[in-house]
Design a protein that fits this description.
Number of helices: 18
InterPro entries: HNH_nuc
Strand order of the largest sheet: 1-2-4-3
Structural class: alpha+beta
Pfam family, one: HNH_4
Number of strands: 10
Helix content: 55-70%
Radius of gyration: 25 Å
Protein name: HNH nuclease domain-containing protein
Number of domains: 3
Organism: Mucilaginibacter aquatilis
Distance between the termini: 38 Å
Shape: elongated
Largest sheet: 4 strands, antiparallel
């Protein structure tokens, strides 16, 4: 296990495709299996093997309560939502979620539900192996199944369908040893009840005499003081300043533009920052290309002259706000007439950190 493995995990979380929750469910399930320390986990050379059936069981438990919450961009449909919803409706008359789990773990799925359940778990297996397992790690290794690998087995006919049936009939998947070790060390802090936020919420519940719930505390802890109204106000202020200019040029291309977007240099989704130095005019098509990517340090250096031009323009119009925001975010304790160079260098350092250490996508296309 080495530092690069942790950087890779950061990159997977930040950069690999996340058009659905499948990636998060796969990573969560893998960590949970490791934390469970299942006797079915097998070490073979430099890879760790798990029964896919154990992961299918985890996904059943994850998605059972969430099936009606949007899980895919622009859609509420999971690949397996049809049979899962039917199963849930059926179990509403049989005792609900707990009754389903008891059947799966102990009593076995009732005979009359075998066909429905098999349809569901086969769709789950196909979804897991053909989607997140295939694509996780592509941003690192530039190939499919770069981290996860899957091995099938033949189905065995049986009259009993339960958790053991899943273990015996859905093959195995494996991950490299170094990822297994990394998840062993940090998994519970990332995923489970040992995470800092969960511990914070748990302590607050106890301190309140249990008048609060963990959910209530987490909702409050995760609230951001920066609102969408502040984004709108900052952008409106910036546009009013630009109106004093004879012409506006796109900061990323240098083109003269009359129609422009106000772009966050460091994307708002990554760094909740509406400082005026972080807002620059850009062509709408380039803003759409950039989206949540981080400008490369080389791109920042290449556009330095135009960035500084806009910084001077803002500084001339709103000096108190601009200087205060710039000092807190980029200048720190450093002062001097060369503040442009200091700020640009710190901005490049921030971009490099977000790309190389945090794993966010880099944008350098012009």
């Amino acid at each position: 296990m080495n530092l690069q493995t942790f950087k890779n995990i950061n990159q997977i979380l930040a950069r690999d495709s996340k058009s659905s929750t499948y990636k998060f469910a796969l990573l969560r399930g893998t960590i949970d299996l490791i934390d469970d320390n299942s006797p079915f986990i097998v070490i073979k050379g430099d890879r760790i093997h798990f029964p896919l059936g154990l992961l299918i069981e985890k996904w059943l438990l994850y998605y059972y309560p969430l099936v009606n919450i949007p899980q895919i961009n622009r859609s509420t449909q999971l690949a397996f939502s049809g049979p899962l919803k039917t199963l849930i409706e059926t179990y509403e008359l049989r005792g609900g979620f707990s009754a389903f789990y008891n059947d799966l773990k102990n009593k076995g799925i009732p005979q009359e539900l075998h066909r429905l359940f098999l349809e569901l778990v086969k769709k789950l297996a196909a979804t897991i192996t053909l989607m997140p397992m295939k694509y996780i790690g592509t941003s690192i290794y530039d190939q499919f199944y770069g981290i996860y690998k899957y091995e099938k087995v033949k189905f065995h006919r049986t009259n009993s369908i339960d958790a053991e049936y899943l273990i015996n009939n859905f093959g195995t998947f494996s991950i490299p040893l170094e990822y297994y070790e990394a998840f062993q060390v940090l998994g519970s802090f990332v995923n489970g009840q040992d995470s800092i936020l969960f511990k914070w919420a748990e302590f607050s519940v106890q301190a309140s005499g249990k008048t609060l719930s963990v959910t209530q505390v987490l909702d409050e802890v995760l609230k951001s003081p920066i609102t969408s109204r502040e984004i709108t106000e900052s952008k409106a202020l910036y546009k009013s300043i630009l109106q004093t200019e004879g012409q506006v040029c796109c900061v990323w291309s240098g083109d003269k533009i009359t129609n422009y977007d106000i772009d966050h240099i460091l994307p708002f989704t990554i760094w909740k920052n509406n400082d005026l130095w972080n807002l620059l005019p850009t062509r709408p098509d380039l803003n759409n290309q950039k989206r949540d990517k981080i400008p490369s340090p080389a791109l920042i250096e290449g556009r330095k002259e135009l960035i500084c031009h806009y910084w001077d323009l803002i500084n001339n119009n709103k000096p108190q706000r601009f200087q205060k925001e710039l000092h807190i975010a980029l200048l720190g304790l450093q002062k001097g007439d060369d503040w442009h160079d200091i700020a640009i260098n710190q901005l490049k350092k921030n971009c490099d950190y977000l790309i190389s250490t945090r794993g966010y996508g880099m944008w350098s296309q012009l």
